[in-house]
Design goal:
The protein has about 140 residues and is α/β, with parallel strands linked by helices. The chain is about 35% helix and about 20% strand. Helix 1 (about 15-25) links the parallel strand 1 (about 1-10) and strand 2 (about 30-35). The radius of gyration is 14 Å and the shape is globular.
């Protein structure tokens, strides 16, 4: 079983979407999880954007990197999905990891505007993540 951990700041948006896309890709030997530097709250706009494409993440919990470290879990891939252009501090996951990757995506939690404007921007990020995940899983 190949295990992938997606990490961002609060585990409220990007890492949750990436986890869901991998786990819904129909791969029998791959399992994805996600975590953040700090425990956050699931972003409701992200939940709605994912529901639009038939993926329900509303029951997901948010996790911290420290919880993953404390659990002793091993990951084949740790992928940070932070946006360094916004000055976010991407975490480092210590321990024995086969491969560390970084892919920048804008943070839906930082979007300003009406609900519809936030949803529209979140859709764009969702689709960017989906497209990248489609390529990533081909490598697995």
């Amino acid at each position: 079983m190949t295990k992938v951990l997606f990490v961002c700041i609060h585990n409220s948006a990007r890492s949750q979407m990436a986890e869901a896309f991998v786990n819904n890709a129909g791969l029998e030997n791959v399992k994805a999880e996600s975590a953040g530097i700090e425990k956050g709250k699931l972003n409701p706009v992200v939940v709605d954007a994912m529901k639009e494409i038939g993926i329900d993440i509303s029951g997901n919990s948010t996790n911290t990197v420290q919880e993953k470290i404390d659990s002793g879990d091993h990951y084949d891939y740790v992928v940070t999905v932070c946006d360094q252009a916004s000055g976010e501090r991407c975490p480092v996951f210590p321990g024995n990891v086969y491969k560390r990757l970084h892919k920048e995506f804008p943070d839906p939690s930082a979007f300003q505007g009406s609900y519809e404007e936030k949803l529209d921007f979140t859709r764009k990020v969702r689709d960017q993540i989906k497209n990248w995940i489609d390529e990533f899983v081909k490598e697995l």
